[in-house]
Amino acid sequence: MNLLLLLSLLLLPPISPTQISVSPKTLSKSGDPVTIQWSGVDDPSSLDWVGLYSPPNSSHDHFIGYLFLSNSSTWQSGSGSITIPLINLRSNYQFRIFRWTASEIDPKRHDHDHNSLPGTKHPLAESEEIGFESGRGPEQVHLALTGQEGEMRVMFVTHDGRESFVRYGPGPNRMDQVAGTRVGRYEREDMCDSPANHSVGWRDPGFIHDGVMTNLKKGKRYYYKVGSDSGGWSITYNFVSHDGDSSETVAFLFGDMGTATPFSTFIRTQDESISTIKWISRDMQALGDKPALVSHIGDISYARGYSWIWDNFFNQIEPVASQVPYHVCIGNHEYDWPLQPWKPDWSYSIYGTDGGGECGVPYSLRFNMPGNSSEPTATRAPATRNLYYSFDMGSVHFLYISTETNFLQGSSQYNFIKQDLESVDRKKTPFVVVQGHRPMYTTSNEIRDAPIRERMLEHLEPLFVKSKVTLALWGHVHRYERFCPLNNFTCGALGFHGEDWEAFPVHVVIGMAGQDWQPIWEPRANHPTDPIFPQPVRSMYRGGEFGYTRLFATKEKLTFSYVGNHDGEVHDTFEILASGQVLNGNRGGDGAMAKGKEGSTISWYVKGASVLMLGAFIGYVLGFISRARREAGLGKTWTPVKSEET
Ligand SMILES: *[C@@H]1O[C@H](CO)[C@@H](O)[C@H](O)[C@H]1NC(C)=O
Ligand SMILES: *[C@@H]1O[C@H](CO)[C@@H](O)[C@H](O)[C@H]1NC(C)=O
Ligand SMILES: *[C@@H]1O[C@H](CO)[C@@H](O)[C@H](O)[C@H]1NC(C)=O
Ligand SMILES: *[C@@H]1O[C@H](CO)[C@@H](O)[C@H](O)[C@H]1NC(C)=O
Ligand SMILES: *[C@@H]1O[C@H](CO)[C@@H](O)[C@H](O)[C@H]1NC(C)=O
């Protein structure tokens, strides 16, 4: 062997024997599965991984997500396969296999769970590109009320912004009415900071379409599809139009849900969101032809600057959001950034980088809530919208507010809230429900937010008390907690002993729909049933389980219930009469006590739901249960969660 040959053998990289293939090559729509297959991995290690790349020319470190090859049961043989659903990101995907070694673990590069991000020094193989069929129509369909009778807004995403329409009508074969759509989008330069404005987090968000179906008859089922003849049409969806003459209200409410990805990525995602959407779908099926509402009060997708998380989120909620209006308010994880325009002196401990540089832009453009509240961003980015608004549905007046922008006396938001609460027609809507992201009351150890709670108590609580707000719902704390009717930390009389009751607002924290990360209310060894944060008298119920809440109201009575994701059952429930009196809102330490109370009013739909469960949903549920917090279902009241988020 001559020297030259030896040298060249040393200098040439060894030809990697690793093969990777992906099938199918073309997917038809988001959620379709793709199988990644590999072979020839020499000396396989549990740190070998495959990265997902979109667009396919992204640099090695800018993956969308990753999976360890050890997820395949045969990985030790050097070959294996993984099947995952893919979301249409409007550009092709490529998959790359890397070797990563323990000595290359960089403790400074990690995700929110302190998992080190995998290294890309040793690429082993790259797949061909795969993509989505064109002409299959838009995706990410979601509805919203406009605030006008006889209307329903529908929003969706296309890859090219071509002229698109909504076709709708009273039957799947009678979609004779047509509405045009307005198109909007946002650019990388609109993002305020990284990762949102950096190649690691930014991806083209596509074009956002916004159309309004009009002249809808009250309380009727409508069928619709979106798209165009040239770009293709979506599947046919349906919804029940709202009925201004009905006094019934059905709503599903929660905060802080997020989304679940089938791969690991740069940030924590929320597996529990699968369960939340699943149980709400069950309830919606059982509702039959009644209109309903979904309310997601801040911390929506938890994208925090990683663009594809928004795509994932809208695909995940579509089965619900294409059938009932999906209403939102803004949370810190949509907005919060260092140069935000409203950042008074007292708030420096509160506001940071929770929005990942998005500065409210995706939130403002991907949703379109009623009213036209907006605040300038003080950058080239479009104004922040969907801040505060209200509408009536049945016997409830819903008011949504922003805890992220100015709400102090003298601000335009304060004036709106005051004027709105003062002008409610209580004969028409005996109940008033206010919703915002950061809580006015919580017994969780939320030290960072203390200054904002003080301002909310000082500026907003007097308005709520004076206007006899029925319910104040908050997110942000990833727990369920219900308070007595409250004014300035004091419980109002309930009127059970002949005294006058005081119709103070009942505050409920409902941020338990998906995101983890909360200090625990854990029992001490010698006090197995006592939480670590003492539960003051005003806190009537604290739940440690993920879940959502249901609101059911007639002209006479509003029933509010907390459903746990671990079993799909009601764990806390109370009723409020039109007079403002709170019934059976007793202190309930654990879920068992409260169970069944909801029965009187809406057992019909819970029962119907159970029947459905046995049918259509059973396969899904079985599949789900393996991921669920099974231990929780076995009677544990406390779910240990991860460390506190600041
Ligand atoms: C990938 O390709 C697109 C268009 O072909 C180009 O605009 C973009 O800069 C490329 N990205 C990288 C990281 O090379
Ligand atoms: C891969 O393995 C991890 C860790 O065991 C698990 O959390 C994840 O769900 C698995 N993913 C797939 C697609 O199997
Ligand atoms: C992202 O925004 C920050 C803050 O405005 C800026 O300093 C940075 O240069 C931007 N990065 C990119 C890649 O545009
Ligand atoms: C929209 O804003 C204008 C002024 O900026 C106001 O006069 C109007 O009432 C607002 N419309 C709604 C629906 O809130
Ligand atoms: C709330 O209660 C505290 C102490 O009990 C009292 O000092 C304060 O003035 C009260 N605030 C209002 C607005 O009544």
TrEMBL record:
Its EC number is 3.1.3.2. The chain crosses the membrane at residues 604-625. This is Purple acid phosphatase. Belongs to the metallophosphoesterase superfamily. Purple acid phosphatase family. It holds the Pfam family Metallophos_C. It is found in: Secreted. Residues 288-480 form the Calcineurin-like phosphoesterase domain. Homodimer.
